[in-house]
Amino acid sequence: MKTNFLLLSSLAVALLANAWLGAAVAAPNPVLDITGKKLQTDVEYYILPVFRGRGGGLTLASTGNKTCPLDVVQDRLEVNNGLPLTFSPVNLTKGVVRESTDLNIKFSAATICVQSTVWKLDYDESLRQYFVTSGGVEGNPGRETISNWFKIEKYEDDYKLVFCPTVCDYCRVICRYIGIYNQKGVGRLAPSDVPFKVMFKGA
């Protein structure tokens, strides 16, 4: 009986060890910048298009007939990096930004609007289309902030932005890539079937 108990105990320890190792292996990979360094939560970056010739980095601009809040758009000039941003994951892990992890994205810039520069998904009634705009809330994960959380996912050798928040267990969310919606020559970020392929450069 003692032998059986020892065997069962050893098996239990082995299973726990394997479960722990499996959890460790399953940790999301870090997002890397164009130099191969891990993205950090306290560092500013530019989000740049991988494919050149269609515009520059991401910035803020007023679109349509409204002035505020400002919308997230692609700079028309390819040579412009846009505005620097910071990333704030829902779970900080040694200050590293990881793939497929809920995070807030925030421009490090002052604007004419009173709203924050945190990204959020908002609905444009006139165009009947969702767009990425500013005025979101940083942190406080849950139902009230569900539209403020985005993810960075690996896309071939580079990355794509995704709206698929998991900060609310009982909320129903339609997951979509973030792509470019052309509105009268302005490339606005919006949910799309075609992802905007991006890379990250230190500011």
From TrEMBL:
* Pfam families listed in its UniProt record: Kunitz_legume
Alphabetically list the UniProt keywords. Signal
Known CDD domains for this protein? beta-trefoil_STI_VvMLP-like (cd23375)
- Domain of life, per lineage: Eukaryota
Keyword Signal in the entry? The reply is: yes
Q: Which SMART domains would you find in this protein's record?
A: STI
Tell me which positions the record assigns to the signal sequence. 1-26
Q: Identify its protein family.
A: Belongs to the protease inhibitor I3 (leguminous Kunitz-type inhibitor) family.
PANTHER family registered for this protein in UniProt? KUNITZ TRYPSIN INHIBITOR 2, KUNITZ TRYPSIN INHIBITOR 5
Query: What protein is this chain from?
Result: Miraculin
